[in-house]
Amino acid sequence: MTDMAPSGFGAATPVTPLIAGKRLRHVCFTAIAAFILLGPAPGQLFGQSSPWLREWVMFSGVGVGIPKGQFTVNDANGSDQGSYTPLAAAGLDRYPRMSHYRFENRVFASGDMAGFAAPLCASLAPGQHVSFEGWVGTRQGWAEMSIETVCAMQGDTQ
Fold first, then answer.
1. pLDDT tens for residues 94-116?
2. Which residues of the chain have pLDDT under 70?
3. What are the extents of the domains in the chain?
4. Which residue, 155, 133, 142, 146, is CA-closest to 86?
5. Which among 20, 112, 130, 139 could disulfide-bond with 107, CB atoms 3.0 to 4.6 Å apart, if both were Cys?
């Protein structure tokens, strides 16, 4: 006996394996889409976390500790000897590309700036010093930072 499925106006049509396969694919797709879209909802709505239902975390903390501004090299007289971008001061062509953004030279306090700009500090001639004017990324937004002598601040954690 053939399985029959209702069709339009009272006439029954046989259920073929092709139609059953399509139906199964639609049900599976809908279930997977619902899981992807609604899976993180309990953690976001009710504060419940689960290893099976992960919360949405997109680009969390990517810009934290990254300076945006200008490093300036001055000689002993105070005359400007050149300006550098944060990438140039850190001796980088670009910030690292990684799936989980880890960058060991992040700036969390003014004392961390010397570690960030270590390549620039190492290239200074005697009597020169580096200053920084700009902002540093925090979880609350951009925080203004102004440092007169970056290289002399090593070890300071204000």
1. 877 665 556 678 888 888 999 99
2. 1-18, 56-59, 97-103, 152-158
3. 4-46, 67-153
4. 133
5. 112
Structure tokens at 68: 């945006």
User: How far is it, in rounded angstroms, from Cα 23 to Cα 28?
Assistant: 9
Length of the chain (residues): 158
Give yes or no for a contact between 81 and 75, defined as CB atoms under 8 angstroms apart.
Answer: yes
- Find out whether 49 and 43 touch, Cβ atoms under 8 Å: yes
Q: Which two tokens stand for residue 11?
A: 């006439």
Q: Whole-prediction pTM value?
A: 0.59
- Provide the residue type at 62 as one letter: V
Q: Which two tokens stand for residue 35?
A: 């899981």
Token pair listed for 94: 């670009």
The DSSP bridge partners found for residue 141 are 138
In our burial notation (b when 16+ CB lie closer than 10 A, e otherwise), range 103-112 reads: eebbbeebbb
Eight-state DSSP code of residue 107: -
List of residues 6+ apart from 91 with CB closer than 8 A: 118, 119, 120
